Amino acid sequence: MADQAPAASPDPEAPLDSEASGEGTRFPPRGESVITGINRIGLWSLYMKEVRRFLKVQTQTIWAPAVTTLLFLVIFTVALGREGRMVLGVPFASFVAPGLIVMGMMQNAFANSSFSLLSGKIQGTIIDLLMPPLSPGELMTGIVAAAVTRAVMVGCTVAAAMLLWPGVHLGVEHWWAVIWFGLMGSIMLSVMGLATSIWSEKFDHNAAITNFVIAPLSLLSGTFYVIDNLHGVFQGISRANPFFYVISGFRYGFLGESDIGEGSGPIAQAAIGLGVLNLAMAYVVYHVLKSGWKLKD
């Protein structure tokens, strides 16, 4: 027995062969993906992580926007809606309410998605989002879906708060328009927020986009007026603002009237146009996210 050769130790670098080892399982070669298709568990985990993040501070993320938007309604109704002023055949309060609801939805969708990656870059925890086995599409979908969830919660809360104000009627004429334009506006700002989060290197950059891009586009989108009252040049500028179509289309769902154009044709064109715009924006942001620009440098 002393002259028996010792057994060769297995090579740790060699893949495990099920036939040679007698086992019924085999590890995939190094570098080969184990998860095929959509990583549903990872996507759901990211989505729930983002949702729980803003729900932990729901006083700031859900209830505060409702109070702020209600203050807008009170101030502009008192200032511009006195003496029974009618706009598009309804009292001024009912005219301005849908626009304020969807404006709050869009602004909070942007705020949520623009914070996700930026906070990780500043705090040094960006690796927690980049290391898990999530594709760029899954990472983008989880962040955008959570931002849309926050937008919907804010919209429902704002609508409930507005019902407390006398003179506001929120009867729905076209549910498809309320749902479609609400989602398109939320997705559009979610994607814009994600692009801002990728580009920004500090919170000042994020605040600059919020103050100098998002706020002007929101306030100058026909939320408090119809563009027919504007000069022709400013009407053209308003029609180049995608926020205008979101707000007017969302308002059409409640009132059955809008200042996009007469009939349902212009509304349908606006709905299709917003869908195409969101697809184009998502395509660009997806490829930027996939490249790792300002994330993996």
From TrEMBL:
InterPro entries: ABC-2_transport_permease, ABC2_TM, ABC2_TM_bact-type, ABC_2_transport. It is found in: Cell inner membrane; Membrane. Signal peptide: none annotated. Residues 56-292 form the ABC transmembrane type-2 domain. It comes from the Bacteria. Pfam families: ABC2_membrane. Residues 1-31 are annotated as: Disordered. Keywords: Cell membrane, Membrane, Transmembrane, Transmembrane helix, Transport. It is a multi-pass membrane protein. The chain crosses the membrane at residues 62-80, 139-163, 175-195, 207-227, 267-289. Belongs to the ABC-2 integral membrane protein family. This is Transport permease protein. It comes from Altererythrobacter litoralis.
